[in-house]
TrEMBL record:
The keyword Cytoplasm does not apply. HAMAP family: THF_DHG_CYH. This is Bifunctional protein FolD. It comes from the Bacteria. NCBIfam families: PRK10792.1, PRK14186.1, PRK14189.1. Homodimer. It holds the Pfam family THF_DHG_CYH_C. The keyword Glycoprotein does not apply. Gene3D superfamilies: Leucine Dehydrogenase, chain A, domain 1 (3.40.50.10860), NAD(P)-binding Rossmann-like Domain (3.40.50.720). It catalyses: (6R)-5,10-methenyltetrahydrofolate + H2O = (6R)-10-formyltetrahydrofolate + H(+); (6R)-5,10-methylene-5,6,7,8-tetrahydrofolate + NADP(+) = (6R)-5,10-methenyltetrahydrofolate + NADPH. InterPro entries: Aminoacid_DH-like_N_sf, NAD(P)-bd_dom_sf, THF_DH/CycHdrlase, THF_DH/CycHdrlase_cat_dom, THF_DH/CycHdrlase_CS, THF_DH/CycHdrlase_NAD-bd_dom. Its EC number is 1.5.1.5, 3.5.4.9.
């Protein structure tokens, strides 16, 4: 058989059509991960050095953590807080009470801890059982031992000037922004969530750092409209996947404060991390992001409380 043209080769005498096959590789840059675990290592090393210096002077820093009830999540949180204290050379006490503890009994314990010179920081884990007025309990903590920064005098001082303590989670978020040298001044920050623990103090800290701040919540109409304008997006709603990749401005810093479980029981945040990391410039993981920073800033607040008593 006479040799014919190769498959696809032009027959002799026919016009040559040169087909270019251009393969366009989409250029997707994955976000840089802001590791709360790594950042915490540096900050905790500094805390441990300062704790050793105080201990050497016979003034070991001390934190009391009070847990009422048996919420499994709260038990894990307080265990981690107490362990971090021990690892940093603090004196720590964990007071665990049955959910039937009365409000009066809890107020009595807070008064005793206020008067205890070995204790520089007091943390009453929230939420409290429904029969206890959390506001009353927080107000009973001496402001100079309120290492959560929840007392009205510290919350008010956060609004108007220099609080004795900044709430740990939003304080940790600010440290994360600092760690990547992010120019917060002039940036548009959107905070999703308006709790007293995270959203409201977060907005205040960002505002004080010079950001233009929008505060949203889980009920905000067309949430994506707001989040797509965010240079800095802090999400703290406790609702898994409330922020998806299409709601993120390309290159934005995405800070995920959420702590949820997926269908397989695995820890996850409020942001659809796998897809969001292809759009964001920086993103925090869950676990290993904001969680460790919250505990680290509790240590920082407690060491500062102890150092103040040493002056
Ligand atoms: N419950 C959830 N987060 C916190 C926190 O930062 N401090 C206290 N006391 N309770 C919490």
């Amino acid at each position: 058989m006479a040799p014919g043209p190769r498959d696809g080769a032009p027959a002799p005498g026919s016009a040559r059509i040169i087909a270019f096959s251009i393969r366009i590789f989409p250029i997707t840059m994955s976000a840089q991960i802001i590791s709360g675990t790594l950042l915490s290592q540096n900050l905790r090393a500094d805390v441990a050095r300062r704790a050793a210096a105080l201990t050497g002077k016979g003034r070991q820093p001390g934190l009391a953590v009070v847990l009422v009830g048996d919420s499994p999540a709260s038990q894990v949180y307080v265990r981690n807080k107490v362990k971090a204290c021990e690892d940093s050379g603090f004196y720590s006490v964990l007071e665990k009470y049955d959910a039937t503890l009365s409000e009066a009994q809890l107020l009595e314990r807070v008064a005793a801890l206020n008067a205890d010179p070995k204790i520089h920081g007091i943390l009453v884990q929230l939420p409290l059982p429904a029969h206890i007025d959390a506001f009353k309990v927080i107000e009973a903590i001496a402001p100079e031992k309120d290492v959560d920064g929840f007392h009205v005098s510290n919350a008010g001082m956060l609004m108007t000037g220099q609080p004795l303590f900044r709430p740990c989670t939003p304080y940790g978020v600010m440290k994360m922004l600092e760690s990547i040298d992010y120019p917060v001044r002039g940036a548009h920050a959107v905070v999703v969530g308006a709790s007293n623990i995270v959203g409201k103090p977060q907005a205040m800290l960002l505002l004080q750092a010079g950001a233009t701040v929008t505060i949203c919540n889980s009920k905000t109409r067309d949430l994506g409209y707001h989040t797509r304008h965010a240079d800095i997006l802090v999400v703290a709603t406790g609702k898994r996947n409330i922020v998806t990749a299409d709601m993120i401005k390309p290159g934005a810093v995405v800070i995920d404060v959420g702590m949820n479980r997926d269908d397989n029981g695995k820890l996850c945040g409020d942001v659809d991390f796998e897809n969001a990391k292809e759009v964001a410039g920086w993103i925090t993981p869950v676990p290993g992001g904001v969680g460790p920073m919250t505990i680290t800033m509790l240590l920082v607040n407690t060491i500062e409380a102890a150092e103040r008593t040493d002056r």
